């Protein structure tokens, strides 16, 4: 089911914003002239990715610097923590990508497909 999350033009090229849809926090971004969406919480420790940085289609988490590609959800770089903490952290939290959502822009609206689970 596609749900309206923004109006076209609400998000400038290269910008991101977090929207709440059906109780889920969704990161909406615009890069390369297209809209991209993913679940908004960082899979490392839950920080809001919308507070991070967007370069091309890659978002950097503001908390520990994990990077994810919004085009396909893959991990570009996992959390950047100092030595021992990183080793322990990696043992506990294996790198995992973000869940991307299908986006459609039509009639001036940006729609995101919500899936359960
Ligand atoms: S919470 Fe995002 S990298 Fe740690």
Q: Output the CATH class name.
A: Mainly Beta
Estimated share of beta-strand residues = 35-45%
What is the radius of gyration?
14 Å
Give a list of the ligands.
FE2/S2 (inorganic) cluster
Give the number of domains: 1
Provide the CATH superfamily.
Rieske [2Fe-2S] iron-sulphur domain
The coarse overall form would be elongated
**Which ranges are low-confidence, i.e. pLDDT below 50, for 5 or more consecutive residues?**
none
Strand order of the largest sheet: 2-3-4-9
* Contiguous helical run count: 1
Q: Could you explain how this protein is built, in words?
A:
By secondary structure, the chain is mainly beta. The chain has one domain: Rieske Iron-sulfur Protein (3-layer Sandwich), CATH 2.102.10.10. 9% of the residues lie in helices and 42% in strands. It is built from one helix and eleven strands; from the N terminus they run E-E-E-E-E-E-E-E-H-E-E-E. The strands form three sheets. Strands 2-3-4-9 form a four-stranded antiparallel β-sheet, with no helix packed on it. A four-stranded antiparallel β-sheet has the order 5-6-7-8, with no helix packed on it. It has a three-stranded antiparallel β-sheet with strand order 1-11-10, with no helix packed on it. The protein is elongated, with a radius of gyration of 14 Å. The mean pLDDT is 91. The chain binds FE2/S2 (inorganic) cluster (FES). Residues 42, 44-45, 47, 61, 63-66, 79 line the site of FE2/S2 (inorganic) cluster.
Provide a compact summary of the structure:
The protein is mainly beta. 9% of the residues lie in helices and 42% in strands. The chain has one domain: Rieske Iron-sulfur Protein (3-layer Sandwich), CATH 2.102.10.10.
